[in-house]
Amino acid sequence: MSDKNGKQGLSRRQFLSYALGGTGAFMAATIAAPLVPFAIDPLTRTSGGGFADSGLKESDVKSDFPTMVDFKVHRKDGWIEENVKMRAWLIKDESGKIMAMSPICTHLGCQVAGTVDGNGNPKPSEDGEWWFHCPCHGGRYTIYGINDKAKPPQRPLDLYEVKVEGGKIMLGAISQRKA
Amino acid sequence: MAHDHFRERIPGTPRFKEKDKNKPIGTEPFFPNFLLKEWIVGALFLVAFMLWIVFNPVELTDVANPSDSSYTPMPDWYFLFLYQLLKYFPGSVIWLGSVILPGIAATLLILAPWLDNSKVRHPFKRPVATSAMVLSLLLMIWMTYEAHVQHEEHLASQPKKVDQSAMPADTTLVDANDPGAKIFATSCAGCHGADLKGQIGPFLIGVGNKYDEAKLVDTITKGFPPNMPPKGGLASDDQVKQVAAWLAKQKQK
Amino acid sequence: MFKKTYDWIDERLGITPIWRDIADHDVPAHVNPANKMSAFVYCFGGLTFLIIVTQILSGMFLAMYYVPDIVNAYRSVQYITDEVLLGQIVRGMHFWGASLVIIMMFLHMLRVFFTGSYKAPREMNWVVGVLIFFVVMGFGFTGYLLPWDQKAYWATAVGAQIAESVPWIGKYIKTVLIGGDVLGALTLTRFFAIHVFFLPAGLLGLLGLHFIMIRKQGIAGPL
Ligand code: HEM
Ligand code: FES
């Protein structure tokens, strides 16, 4: 670049402008340095990964129908620590492994209902293989939480991480299954 | 600094005021010349500020307790001169210090341009305005200082709460029925607490970890005048010995 | 690309004269510390503004965690101080910045006073300046209560008592100030609203006037 006198290189004015930009950027960075980490602090807090006692024993879980359980998870929400009520449906899959399903519909988050009789005991579905039904938009799932693709939900029910400790079933973080 | 590209513009943009070219030396455009200098000062200022913050963490006192009226209130430092002013107008004339005087001062400050309305600007050429401001300044500084000193004095005169932060977690007494314990209750407990957790005097839980019996006898006998009388106020050396023997057993962790 | 966008906007709004006016106006030698060291006193106003900017920013960020209610206020401040990443620093910026604003503003006022810069035609800007001063004191008073710790509570209690000492109407002033008969939940919400909505609105308005007048009138000449 050349300035008005035809000399090569930066003009004085351009040099000053760059220096000004640099100083401004330095000040902005100094101020932002504590503020940005402060704002993104939640990223440093993983959602626990801790396990909670479901209250069920290994032997309580059947392989024909899912069993429902309500349990409490200790949750730290900022400075408020509380025990949050959670629900899970547990069943042993064909290989005998315990799977714990979240009853939150994978469509828009309604709570799905299992097929149970008046006493809350599981019974066979009158709807073929579909055992869980969502009250909201007709979503339905098998006993293993596999969704009916013809209905709104496009993903099986989410699973809790399961750990068995001395016969007691512990439930951990929730993760999604692939469609 | 008398370069002639002083008032140079970004190539292609018009000169703003060609006629200003012959302004006195030292005059310069706001952008970027002057602003750069301002911002360099600003950047240094900011760095100093951040360093100060890093080395001076802000404290948080205990949660507000409306029923604890023993807390000695203290406004932030820049209100102290006003706070101090109140002390000179006690009781029924407090409004002189809380409304009238500050009101007059504020009014004078707002009206300064009309009160000091001569054409001259140099501070030495308007002695009334200058000395009034200097005087007010000195008064404010002095009152702020006084308020601070009086606050410190007040705090010192308060029975201070013992600092229990270093006290062992286990506070059960060892040998609570020891004869030494009974003697302790007659005098020492008034300051150190019957539970040894301290009141006016420091806590003595775990004191056996720090001192053995001989050292305790020595310390108690000397006392800490004027805060603790010699022998801790006990009548005889024998009593001191028994108390010391009991205290030496207090080895709570 | 940038130039095209700029031209497009400029064609419609004619923004060039606005910033050219600010960018190209000449700053006289006597306020330039590079010319004469003692001119650093002319930096005080700008430095006050810099700290005001950091106050506004740190305040906005603190508000991400702070809760203005007597059950949670203290705990949220505790959470900021002890747990949030660099919370100690961000709180420190706002806490120490409050004092620094007062100091710099005071120095700036003294500079204006002793150089007689408030004289005609700048009387109005002086008045605006004094109003800014009061607004900033208001920030200090209302902000001091927000952590809801002992220091905060009892300092405000004293403030409320002082308000009560005003003849005749003192009682009413106090009630309105603390939002009731006792210093409590309603005081905190009130002080919070004043601290983060009312006073900033006032301050920004006044600062706008301050700067417009400075630009219009220029800096007072050398002594
Ligand atoms: C938040 C507070 C304030 C800010 C950010 C601020 C900012 C500024 C700035 C940047 C200037 C340009 C000159 C300089 O920097 O010295 C200025 C000038 C001025 N300020 Fe302030 N100011 C504030 C408060 C005050 C106060 C409290 C007063 C008076 C009571 C005041 C009265 C004036 C006057 C009269 C001028 C014109 C001075 C001249 O022409 O030489 N300002 N202010
Ligand atoms: S939410 Fe369950 S089907 Fe829509």
Helix content range of the residues of chain C, please? over 70%
**CATH architecture annotation name of the domain at 52-175 in chain A:** 3-layer Sandwich
Which band does the percent of strand residues of chain A land in?
25-35%
- Strand segment count of chain C: 1
What's the total count of β strands of chain A?
A: 8
InterPro entries (chain B): Cyt_b/b6_C, Cyt_b/b6_C_sf, Cyt_c-like_dom, Cyt_c-like_dom_sf, Cytb/b6-like_sf, Cytochrome_c550/c551-like
Protein name (chain B): Cytochrome c class I
GO cellular component, one term (chain B): membrane
Transmembrane segments (chain B): 39-58, 93-115, 127-145
Topology:
The complex is a heterotrimer of chains A (179), B (253) and C (223).
Chain A: H1 12-39, E1 52-57, E2 67-77, E3 80-92, E4 98-101, E5 132-133, E6 140-141, E7 159-165, E8 168-175
Antiparallel strand pairs in A: 1-8, 2-3, 3-4, 4-7, 5-6, 7-8
Chain B: E1 28-29, H1 30-55, H2 80-87, H3 94-115, H4 127-157, H5 179-186, H6 189-192, H7 207-210, H8 213-222, H9 237-248
Chain C: H1 2-13, H2 16-24, E1 26-27, H3 44-62, H4 73-82, H5 87-114, H6 123-145, H7 150-164, H8 170-178, H9 185-217
Helix pairs in contact in C: 3-5, 4-5, 5-6, 6-7, 6-9, 7-8
The structure holds protoporphyrin IX containing FE and FE2/S2 (inorganic) cluster (FES).
Protoporphyrin IX containing FE is lined by residues 42, 44-46, 48-49, 52, 105, 108-109, 111-112, 117-118, 122, 125-126, 129-130, 132-133, 136, 207, 210, 214, 219-220 of chain C.
Characterize the structure shown.
- Chain A: It holds the Pfam family Rieske.
- Chain A: The chain crosses the membrane at residues 15-36.
- Chain A: This is Rieske (2Fe-2S) protein.
- The complex is a heterotrimer of chains A (179), B (253) and C (223).
- Chain A is α+β, with helices and mostly antiparallel strands and 179 residues long.
- Chain A has a domain at 52-175: Rieske Iron-sulfur Protein (3-layer Sandwich), CATH 2.102.10.10.
- Chain A is 16% helix and 30% strand.
- In chain A, the strands form 2 sheets. A 6-stranded antiparallel sheet of chain A has the order 1-8-7-4-3-2, with no helix packed on it.
- In chain A, a hairpin with a 2-residue loop joins strand 7 and strand 8.
- The mean pLDDT of chain A is 89.
- Chain B folds into 2 domains: 30-157, plastocyanin oxidoreductase (Helix Hairpins, Orthogonal Bundle); 179-248, Cytochrome Bc1 Complex, Chain D, domain 2, CATH 1.10.760.10.
- Chain B is built from 9 helices and 1 strand.
- Chain B has helices at 30-55, 80-87, 94-115, 127-157, 179-186, 189-192, 207-210, 213-222, 237-248; one strand at 28-29.
- Chain B is mostly helical and 253 residues long.
- By secondary structure, chain C is mostly helical.
- Classes of the chains: A alpha+beta (179), B mainly alpha (253), C mainly alpha (223).
- At the B-C interface, strand 1, helix 1, helix 3 and helix 4 of B face helix 2, strand 1, helix 3, helix 4 and helix 5 of C.
- Strand 1 (28-29) of chain B pairs antiparallel with strand 1 (26-27) of chain C.
- Bound molecules: protoporphyrin IX containing FE (HEM) and FE2/S2 (inorganic) cluster (FES).
- FE2/S2 (inorganic) cluster (FES) is lined by residues 105, 107-110, 134, 136-139, 152-153 of chain A.
